[in-house]
């Protein structure tokens, strides 16, 4: 059996992304102490001292990956490729995803012909109709804009699909300035991993997230408090503290946020 890795891509001026990846990784280590974890990040020092491989993401690489700073989510797409080059099977999560149970069974569902993603979102938004007659290619396939959309907040993929992900990455660039939404990264990945007999299914693993405005506001405060209060502890103690720490909102927290009502 080859190397199975969990991976994150964490970058940006807001340290929330790096801290979110670290918190998620600490929970991973609670449920699976032997987990191999890699983070491609522009803040590698955040991960110093932890059993996590931090791969530095330089400013120059971020510019290259984002097609000259034209599409920021190109960094995620290219980053996933870079992580997958270092393992046989990769289970990637966005930095606002974190496990609430053992998710290591994910790897048994990843094969050259099958990937797992967060969920199917069905027919993409009307903005994708703009590519219908453009002749945009994903590998040898002409995109129509009607292909099913898969959410890439979670992605389990086999190393043999590197060519498909590379095709997806090149297809993304064609859409810059044409498709007026930010989801072309996940659209192209979903199409690429559905071609040539490959299939995708929903992950159905014990994973929570804070990817809406209200959840993120609450999680930001909780993460700041967690690292302020636990940074001096040893790694094993931080892992145990993270396992018991709540990022989701109780009813009273929702009531306190009633002025925004973003759930």
TrEMBL record:
Superkingdom per UniProt: Bacteria
The protein's name: Glycosyl transferase family 8
């Amino acid at each position: 059996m080859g190397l199975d890795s969990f991976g994150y891509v964490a970058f940006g001026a807001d340290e929330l992304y790096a801290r979110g990846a670290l918190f998620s990784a600490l929970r991973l280590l609670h449920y699976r102490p032997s987990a191999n974890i890699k983070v491609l990040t522009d803040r590698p020092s955040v991960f110093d001292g932890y059993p996590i491989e931090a791969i530095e993401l330089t400013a120059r690489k971020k510019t290259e990956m984002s097609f000259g700073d034209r599409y920021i989510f190109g960094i995620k797409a290219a980053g996933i490729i870079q992580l997958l080059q270092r393992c046989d099977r990769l289970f990637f999560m966005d930095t606002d995803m974190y496990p609430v149970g053992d998710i290591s069974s994910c790897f048994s569902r990843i094969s050259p012909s099958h990937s797992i993603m967060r969920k199917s979102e069905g027919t993409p938004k009307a903005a994708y109709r703009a590519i219908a007659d453009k002749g945009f290619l994903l590998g040898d396939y002409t995109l129509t804009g009607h292909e099913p959309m898969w959410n890439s907040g979670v992605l389990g993929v086999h190393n043999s699909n590197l060519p498909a992900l590379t095709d997806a990455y090149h297809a993304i660039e064609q859409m810059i300035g044409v498709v007026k939404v930010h989801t072309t990264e996940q659209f192209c990945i979903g199409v690429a991993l559905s071609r040539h007999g490959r299939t995708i299914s929903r992950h159905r693993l014990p994973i929570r997230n804070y990817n809406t405005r209200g959840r993120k506001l609450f999680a930001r405060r909780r993460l700041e408090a967690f690292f302020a209060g636990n940074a001096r502890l040893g790694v094993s103690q931080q892992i145990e503290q993270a396992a018991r720490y709540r990022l989701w909102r109780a009813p009273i927290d929702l009531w306190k946020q009633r002025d925004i009502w973003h759930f």
